[in-house]
Amino acid sequence: MSHRLIIASDLDGTIADHTRTKIDLARQLGHSLTEGEAVSDIMKLKIPENDYTKIGAMVYGEDSLRASVMPSAKETIEKLAAAFGPIYIISRRGNGVEAEYGMKWIEQNIIPPLSKENIFFVRDDAEKQLVAQRLGVSVYIDDRQNVLDQMPNVARRILFDPHDNFPHSKYPRIHSWEELPFYISTIKSL
């Protein structure tokens, strides 16, 4: 039996590209990162925890507005929305100032094709599963494997891995937004 695909994505590191900002902030704190090392799961292994936490706080604050849009993300979201209906964002930014900056970035960069009522900010990664379940999400894209691990009720969990950091991931990987429509076209049913 075939069901309509309901697609959702994380925001930071998946649609919003903070690579340059993380590299710049790390440099200000005395660390050197390559683009591939600016990915959250790699960066936390490369720099001390207190500096990692500082960078995270800055990236989710006003520095959010410095992020660029991942190449082809907006165009791909437009195509997928035309084919499958609304695309959702489920992001761990809490409900405070981090969410406000996240929404402001989305308004400046991704609306349309996204609409505000399809954007959800949650307090922790485990809460993403609850929102996805409530929405009936069948395809979810995130740049962090541990988040995908916490979403067992999502039929297709996809790792966004633009720097090929996780070649042995248990999840299907895409390296760019341009690859996503092809991957989705291979899904026969859920």
Any overview of this molecule?
- With 190 residues, the protein is α/β, with parallel strands linked by helices.
- It has eight helices and eight strands.
- The strands form two sheets. A six-stranded parallel β-sheet has the order 5-4-1-6-7-8. A two-stranded antiparallel ribbon has the order 2-3.
- Helix 1 crosses helix 3 (49-59).
- The protein is globular, with a radius of gyration of 16 Å.
- It starts with 6 loop residues before the first strand and ends in a 5-residue tail after the last helix.
Q: What does the largest sheet look like?
A: 6 strands, parallel
Low-confidence stretches: none
Q: Report the portion of residues in β strands.
A: 5-15%
Radius of gyration: 16 Å
Read across the widest sheet, the strand sequence of neighbours is 5-4-1-6-7-8
Distance between the termini: 7 Å
How many DSSP E strands?
A: 8
Shape call: globular
- Overall pLDDT score: 92
Order of helices and strands: EEHHHEHEHEHEHEEH
Q: Which structural class best describes the helix and strand composition?
A: alpha/beta
Q: Percent range for helical residues?
A: 25-40%
Distinct helical segment count: 8
